[in-house]
Each structure stands twice: as C-alpha cells, then as structure tokens.
C-alpha cells in the first residue's frame, strides 16, 4: 500500500468512479452531507435490501416495514425526551465567536475522557487548564448544551414548531397502536423503517462516518414483558451455533478491553443480555454484517456503561467493526428501551397505548374497590351528584385509603366526602386478561457507515491496481460485457448480449474503449463480479468467456447458458469453474 | 356503490388494513403528513421499482440514479430561485389571526380564477367584495407572499440558514459536473433521484393528494441544445406507435377543454413539444402510468399557460389522471427547464459548469480578439503590468468595442487604456470544440399520489365485498396460503408450503382463522393476486389449488410446480388456466 491511508484511497476511488462525494462541492461543501453517486446509490440499495432480507423478509410473520415522515411536530420530541436530552456540550470563543464541541476539544487537547460530564464540569476543566480557541487563541466561554434537533416551523404559524427526526423510532412508537391493530393484535411485533434522519452535529469531521443527514435502518420490536420468550423458539434454532463476541459493561469496568465469546443460548440463560429477543437480533446482526464482507474477528458487541446510554435505554450494546483509520466504529446499536417511549407518548397524547391480552381462562383475583354511599351523595349533591361520582371514580383505591388514613376524609376537586360515607373494600373479580404496555428492543443500523465499511473490506490491490471484492450480490453493476476489439461484428454481437442481459434485469457495464486488459481493470475497480467477453470464436460457435473478478480466471460457455450461469454465479455464489470449460486468461 | 364516495372507501380500507393513515393520529394529526402502513410501504416500493424499470433500468446507458441530501444550504435555493419565487399568497384575519391561502379563499367564495394574480390584485378583490374570515367573520389584512420552503439552521451558527428541498432537482444540478465526469463526459445524460421532499403548504386539505412531505421520483435529462435529437433514434422506435393525448396551451386559450391525439413522431415534427426527448419521456410516462392500472382514456397531458409555469420552465406539460373525488389531478410534470438552473448555479457558485464537446474535426472560425500594446503596458505600469493584463483579459471583445466607440478609451478596474493602445481585431482560429451549458428536460412524479391513483383504479366491489385488483406485480403481498381447515395435518402442510415460498422470496399471507370463504375475502380486499389452498387431496397426491383473485377461478397443480407457476402468474401475467387443471371453486 502507498502512503495514502485506506480511507483516502477509498474516498478518492469513490469520487472518481461515483460511489460518493461531499455534497454541495461547487459551493465549497457543507460538513456532514454526502451525495451518493450512481454506484453508491445502487450499492446502498443492495445493502438495504440485504438488511430487509435478514431482518424483515425472513421474519415476515413478526416484522413489518412502515414509513413515517421526517418532520414531526414538537410534542413528539418533547414526549420522546429528545427536546430535553438530545444535546451535545458546546463552547464559544469569546473573541472570534467560533463554536466547538467542548468534550471533543478537551479530549483532543488534554487526552482526558469526558463521557458523562456535565457542562459545569467541562467548563471547570477548560478554566483549570486555560484551554483556548484553537483558531484565534481567544478565551472560551461557559460550556452550554446545544440541541441536535434540526428545528423548523410547520405551516404559517411560527408557534407550530417542528423538528426533523434524529431517529426513525418515534414514528413507530406514535403509530404503534395503529400497526398493532392492522396486524391483528399479535405480539411480539416488530415495526421497521428505513429512512432519512438528521442530527445537527456541532462540527462533524469524520467524512462518511459522521453525517448530519443519513439513512437509518431500524426496527422497534414490541414484546410482552411478562412473556419475553414468546415465539422465540421458532427462530432461535437458526442461530443456535452462533457465537457472539461481547465486551460486557462489567468487564469494561474491570478494565477489560477484549471481548469474550458466548453462545446465544448462554447470554440468554445467564442474563448477560437482559432480553432474550435482543440476543437473537444481535446474532442476526452479526450474520448480516458478516454478509457485507466483515470477518467475524473484526467485529464485536460492546455494552455501554450507564452514563454512556441514551436517556431511554436500560441496556445497550454497540456493534463495533474495525476500520483502518478510526479503529473500532459503531455500525449498529441494540437498545432495550423498555416501555419508556410508549409510556411517554401515552402521557403526552392522553391516548391509551396499552394492549389487552386475554388469559387462556378468566382468572379470579382479589381487587380493591372504592365504595361510596350513593344515597348520601344523591341527597347531598343533587344535580351535582353525577359530577361527584365521576370525580370519585378517578381516584385509585390506594389514594382513597391514604386520605382516609391521614385525614379521615376524602377530598377530591374541592368536594369533601366524610370518612363514614366512603370506604375501600376487597372483592373477588373475574379478570379475562391484562392491559399493559409492551416493552421494546431496538436494533438500529446506519446505512452510509455500512456502505463505507463494505467498501473498505472489499478494497484490495493486485498487481498495482484496485480490485473491489464486493460480495457478488452487493455489486452495484453485476456484469460487464466487452467485445474483444472494436471489430464491427464483435461489437454488434456484444451489444446483443448486453440487451439480453438488460432485459433479464441485469445492470450491465458495456465498454469497447481501450485494450481488453484496461477494460477488465476498470470493471475490477468498481467491483463488477463477472465479465463476459465476445471474441472471434463467439462468431463461430456462439460461446463467450466469463471472467471472475476475484480470481481473474475464465471459463467458456454457450451464450444460451449465460443467463442461468450469471444468476447462479451472482445470486447463489456458485464457483466460476462450475459454469463452463476452463480457458487460459487473455488479459490481466 | 354505497353513499361513501370512493375516496372515503379507500381511506377507510387503507386505515383498517394498513395502506396509509394520517401521521401523528394520537396527537390529533398534522395536516399534510401521512404514514405508509405495512401494505402501503410495500406497494409504494413496488411502484418506485416499476418507475426505475421504465425510466432507469431500460435506459441504463443514459440515465443513472443518485441520492442527495434533503437539507441544503440557503445559497442553493437562492441560486435556484426558490427563495424568491416558491411562494403562495397568504392573508391573515385581523381579528382572530387565522391565516388562509388568499387565492383559494377567493376561488371558493367568489368562483373567480386567480392564477397569475399578484398579491396587490388579490388584496383588491378581497377589499372590493368585502371577503371576511370564514371562521370569525373578522376583516382580512393585506395579501402577502408566504415562502413554502421549510427553513432550518445547519450547525450551531444561526446565520447558517438551510432549507428542506421542495424538489430533488437541485441536488442533481449542483452535482451535475461530478456525475458528468463519472459518466465519462457523455450526453445526453439523465440523473435521477427518488427521495423525500417537503413543501410547507399553508393549509393542505386534500388528504393524500396534497402533502407537506412526500416522495418525488424525477430525473433531470441533460442534452446538447444544438443536438437535441442525439441518441433519440436508439429509443424512439419503442414508442413509435404511441399516441399522446394532449391539450395544448394554444387550444386552452381557444377555450378547448378536450385533449387531442397526436403520435410521438407528430408532436416532435410539428414542434408541439419543443424538445424531442421530452416527447419521448412523456410517451414512457404514459405507459408507466398505464402499467399502474390507469386506462389510456383516463389520462392526458395538459400544457401549462405561461403564467401557470414555474419560474424556471419554458414549456410544461402536466400528466393528468381522472380520480372520482377531484376530477383531473396531476400525477407527473414534464418541464423544459432550459439551462436556467445550471446557469444560475454557475453564477452563484463561481464554478464553471459548462461542458466541452470536441468537433469531429477542428473548425476554422473567425473570432474577435482584444489586442493591447504590451510594450506600452510594461513601460507604463511596470510591476503592476501583470494585474493590468489580467484585468484586460477579463473583458470581452464586445465590451472593449463598446467602450472604444463610446468613450474612445477603455477603463477597467480603475485602469485607463487610451484608444490607440488597445484594439479589437478579427482573426482566423482553429477551434477544436465548443463549451456550453446543457439544456434540461425534467419528468417528475409524485409517489404517494400514484399510490392513491393505483388503489383507486384497483378498487372494485363484487358480491358486496372489496376486491382490490392491483396489477399482479404491484401487489404488496404476492400469495396467500390457506389450509382448508384447522386440521393439524393441513396446517402443517400449509406451513411447509409457506416456508418454501418465503425462502424463494415471496411475501406470503398465511391465515387459518375462519371459513375459507372469509379468508379469500380478506386476501382479495388487500389485493393478494394468488391464493394457494391445502386440502385433504393435498395429503394424498401433493397437489394444491391456486385461485385467481380477479376471476375467483381455481386450478389444481402439483406442489413441485408451484414456485414456477407463481412466478409466471405474478411476474409474467400468465393466465391461471395455463398453470394447472381447472377445478370447481370451493369458496367465494
């Protein structure tokens, strides 16, 4: 490898061949925004479709995909806690007015860990070490919290504040009850979404790895907290042999830095992962990221420490993948969100978001009930009596017991009920089921990061040039078609084959410009897994050669068998040697 | 049909079965936002993929798809003209403060056409007719222009204004040069994008038909304005027989309301559509919308009048489709944007966005050149001479001629050059090619509207229940699998078949709840084109019945042939009768 690091090489390739580049280049760019070029857009779509296959299609009984808007009214993110909690510490230079992420500044300049520190504590560190503005050397002000939600206004009234969603999740929580009904009241139920989200980072500086606008692939998996294994036995055997590499929070607190291996069964049995389904989804996540080309040994799950977790989460594992420039980076997060979000939306909306599950048989339970002397209420309050009954009905038995115990009477909405007219009794009741808020585990993936990771693991150099060894089925362009030379007859034949492949659904790279070796190289560089070459023998016996990007080996086969051979080669990963007669390679 | 109109029926079905519903329902909803439910999200994806097939895949030599961000810095929309022009007239009640679309209010209350009127003219009409607030009866203020861009801030500096894109187009214009390079300098070149856009409508009231956030499918088709037929001959034969129904602007001005039929060849030859490629794309658009289930007679293209066109467009056709509630509605727009956008971005960014095309052979042309007395400049300005040469080089020959004619000297950046030291001469020059800005035609489709239109044209009632006759390949769920009864053996067999279909990539509706007739009905209602039923004969000879949603006819075929039969039935639209032995239907 040359002096460029791998990230720079990929960025250069990505720009030159059309995977991605910084958005708004002609205007000098805006940090945190990237365009996907023709190849990048296709690669991303294939990664997303692979995600759909692993998480949705194979679980189509229990997971559905929906789409909700990017813009949401303010109340949604007040309820979710994002208006309050979704912040980063910011500090301003008092001289030049530049603004910085306070924690990053401290970590860079002093090498001190800052996670979990308050703005006051950060300010104190800055003052103590007399940290200055890195650009003008000016004094820095107080550290404040900067909210990362992009803010806007919905409609013509300025008071109707809206935000761009920083995660797709809230769309699923807000629509949960509707989807639950559409899916005929089944649990567990996963609601998935692939879509754009936006986070107004203070100063994003990691290129494709930290974007202000990006694509999330995530689902909220709702389950009955009293029955957390429900339906798991139908799926668990698929990952029975899967070993998860996990660095637990407990191990991290002990100073461990290396993950340990556990079987899925083990992490469930030992409670290392609190929710059994979460362990299952982490196993699927491991296999999915592996299918993108990442070896198992280059990924593991890191449990977050309490102060590292988002406000809604009771347990979180980040799936980390090793990349050359940044070391271990997060490609997915797995959070146990409990019933936090549903309970908050229930509170803020006033809508009942609980679900009802009947018991197999009605149960007899002892319940407390408030009993009031109805005749006395009627006599005393007359036409106001209905209002009094209603007010009392809103009290819980526990509240009434407390008031009776402490004050000997019950006061509700200004109405006084003497202690001898109201009491709490215990009765036996038949209960046909229970109402509860489902709990949620959430696997969440960043699409652009995965795209970068996929490119990095595909990138190889051979004989001084780039061969992008993308998993065949992810390759943005599936097949190249080349006439050996620009001979009119060869070109005509090659164009006919190209048309046949396009009609059959393939995306084809046709090229007749330059030597065949150079054309193979151009195709290798963007990861085209198969190249079909039309040569003079083709004109005689209607056979073509098929070349494997990775081995540079070739076989010869009849044009009539080409479609089927390509499908098997690309979709089923069949070896080239099984698809035709071996030939000596004619070019690099 | 009952008293509900078709729109209400579809909205009810959409909510109940999960196609779409208003977003943020639990918070009372926000006008202009809709969620796509499990079925809607799948249907939309299939519509988008069909669009990709018609426009991108079949034209993969000349069209590529990219993705650009939803958020853009202010300068992009200053350059595009949206900050200035993307407005609607708004009027506020001086008493209650409510705000209305001024033009809609006038049209509703007075039945007067308002298109093209200025805020002053609208205000005048309101005053003259003493139009009042429809809610409180208060007096209305002056009509103002309200900008429909959603505004936000990028990063922590409040002066860094950003907007959400109201169209995907600007992303393609800003990235044009990069994509043009990646695609090796070929014209014509289409750059496509499918993505979210947002328009801050003042008071959207047409449900799914007018959204504040929606999905656009559009491409900018860049071509050489001096060679507007380039490569068209490769594609035109495909639509040679296509007849376009067009209501021209000229006919509309004559008071015509009915479209006339023209062949594609005719509209090009007669210049009815100014750009040949635009005619071609309109023909493809016609076939695409037809493939969604809209009969040709229920669609036509309406040319917009000059005052109805967006600020960037020189000719616009709307593709209109008839829907029951709103009459003719726009599902796509076809605009000739000239080089407006590229020239504006060139001006605002200072980047050269022209392309260079070599002539087949260098041409000799007579060009004007500015000649300055170099020795005199050197003597006179000494060390400043290079700056003077540079300043002069920025002047065009025409500018120099004009100054010499009017003032007898040339003044540039404060430097004065006497008339005898500078002149304009004509010389012969070899020119190897030309630099120019490509022109653009843009076909643009609204995905959610097309989804609604698709549902409306698929909706039928038969024997008192709904049969959603979606084109088979668009159906969100491709196949239903039913055991005839809940007999354990039938259920086991049916689940095995279901697994086989899922593994083969099908999305399957499995149901064993209730009578077989009711289950067929539930599947028909959401448009599942094929239903496989496992009955007692299946246990004997491993055959199943396959039922056609539209004819309710059934055939019997071996399980071993099921996969292939379903692929042919759904993807290739093969008739049911060709897939097995006819049987008497066993249920409704």
From TrEMBL, chains A, B:
SUPFAM superfamilies the record matches: Class II aaRS ABD-related, Class II aaRS and biotin synthetases
Domain called Aminoacyl-transfer RNA synthetases class-II family profile: residue spans: 5-476
E.C. number(s) listed in UniProt: 6.1.1.14
Gene3D superfamilies, A to Z: 3.30.40.230, Anticodon-binding domain, Bira Bifunctional Protein, Domain 2
A GO term for molecular function: glycine-tRNA ligase activity
Location in or out of the cell: Cytoplasm
Keyword Nucleotide-binding attached: yes
GO cellular component: cytoplasm
Principal place of residence: cytoplasm
Enzyme type, top EC level: ligase
Keyword terms of this UniProt record: Aminoacyl-tRNA synthetase, ATP-binding, Cytoplasm, Ligase, Nucleotide-binding, Protein biosynthesis
Biological process, per Gene Ontology: glycyl-tRNA aminoacylation
Positions of substrate binding: 101, 167, 214-218, 442-446
Binding site for ATP: 199-201, 330-331, 446-449
Catalytic reaction annotation: tRNA(Gly) + glycine + ATP = glycyl-tRNA(Gly) + AMP + diphosphate
CDD domains: GlyRS-like_core, GlyRS_anticodon
PANTHER family recorded: GLYCINE--TRNA LIGASE, GLYCYL-TRNA SYNTHETASE/DNA POLYMERASE SUBUNIT GAMMA-2
Similarity comment text for this entry: Belongs to the class-II aminoacyl-tRNA synthetase family.
Protein name (record): Glycine--tRNA ligase
């Amino acid at each position: 490898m040359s002096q460029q690091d791998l990230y720079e090489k990929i960025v250069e390739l990505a720009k030159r061949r059309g995977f991605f580049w910084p958005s708004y280049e002609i205007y000098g760019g805006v940090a945190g925004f990237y365009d996907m070029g023709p190849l990048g857009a296709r690669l991303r779509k294939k990664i997303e479709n692979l995600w759909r296959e692993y998480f949705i299609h194979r679980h189509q009984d229990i997971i559905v995909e929906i789409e909700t808007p990017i813009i949401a009214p303010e109340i949604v993110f007040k309820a979710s806690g994002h208006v309050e909690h979704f912040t980063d510490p910011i500090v301003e230079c008092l001289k030049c007015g530049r603004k910085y992420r306070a924690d990053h500044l401290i970590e860079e300049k002093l090498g001190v860990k800052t996670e979990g520190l308050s703005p006051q504590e950060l300010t104190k560190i800055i003052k103590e070490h007399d940290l200055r503005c890195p650009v003008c050397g000016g004094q820095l002000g107080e550290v404040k919290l900067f909210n990362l939600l992009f803010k806007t206004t919905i409609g013509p009234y300025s008071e109707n504040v809206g935000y761009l969603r920083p995660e797709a999740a809230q769309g699923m929580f807000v629509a949960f009850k509707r989807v639950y009904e559409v899916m005929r009241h089944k649990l567990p139920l996963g609601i998935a979404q692939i879509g754009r989200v936006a986070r107004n980072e203070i100063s994003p500086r990691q290129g494709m790895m930290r974007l202000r606008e990006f694509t999330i692939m995530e689902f909220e998996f709702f389950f009955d907290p009293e029955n957390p294994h429900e339906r798991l036995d139908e799926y668990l055997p698929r990952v029975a042999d899967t070993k998860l590499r996990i660095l637990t929070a407990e191990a991290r607190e002990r100073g461990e830095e290396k993950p340990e291996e556990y079987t899925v069964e083990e992490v469930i049995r030992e409670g290392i992962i609190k929710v059994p389904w979460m362990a299952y989804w982490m196993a699927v996540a491991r296999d999915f990221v592996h299918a993108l080309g990442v070896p198992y040994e280059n990924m593991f799950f890191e449990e977050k420490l309490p102060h590292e977790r988002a406000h809604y989460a009771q347990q979180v594992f980040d799936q980390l993948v090793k990349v050359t420039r940044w070391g271990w980076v997060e490609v997915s997060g797995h959070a146990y969100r409990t019933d936090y979000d549903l309970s908050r939306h229930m509170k803020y909306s006033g809508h009942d978001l609980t679900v009802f599950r009947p018991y197999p048989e009605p149960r007899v339970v002892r319940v407390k009930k408030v009993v009031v002397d109805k005749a006395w209420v009627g006599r005393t309050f007359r036409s106001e009596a209905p209002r009094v009954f209603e007010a009392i009905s809103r009290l819980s038995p526990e509240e009434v017991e407390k008031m009776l115990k402490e004050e000997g009477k019950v006061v509700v909405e200004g109405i006084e009920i003497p202690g001898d007219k109201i009491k709490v009794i215990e009765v036996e009741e038949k209960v046909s089921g229970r109402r509860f808020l489902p709990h949620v585990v959430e696997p969440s993936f960043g699409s652009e990061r995965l795209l970068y990771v996929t490119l990095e693991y595909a990138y190889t150099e051979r004989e001084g040039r780039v061969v992008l060894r993308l998993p065949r089925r992810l390759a943005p362009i599936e097949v190249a078609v080349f006439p050996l030379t620009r001979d009119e007859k060869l070109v005509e034949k090659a164009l006919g084959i190209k048309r046949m492949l396009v009609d059959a659904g393939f995306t084809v790279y046709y090229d007749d410009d330059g030597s065949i070796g150079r054309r193979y190289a151009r195709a290798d560089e963007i990861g085209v897994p198969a190249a079909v070459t039309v040569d003079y023998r083709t004109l005689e016996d209607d056979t073509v050669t098929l070349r494997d990007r990775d081995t540079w080996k070739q076989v010869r086969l009849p044009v009539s068998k080409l479609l089927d051979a390509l499908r098997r080669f690309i979709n089923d990963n069949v070896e080239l040697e099984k698809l035709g007669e071996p030939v000596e390679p004619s070019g690099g």
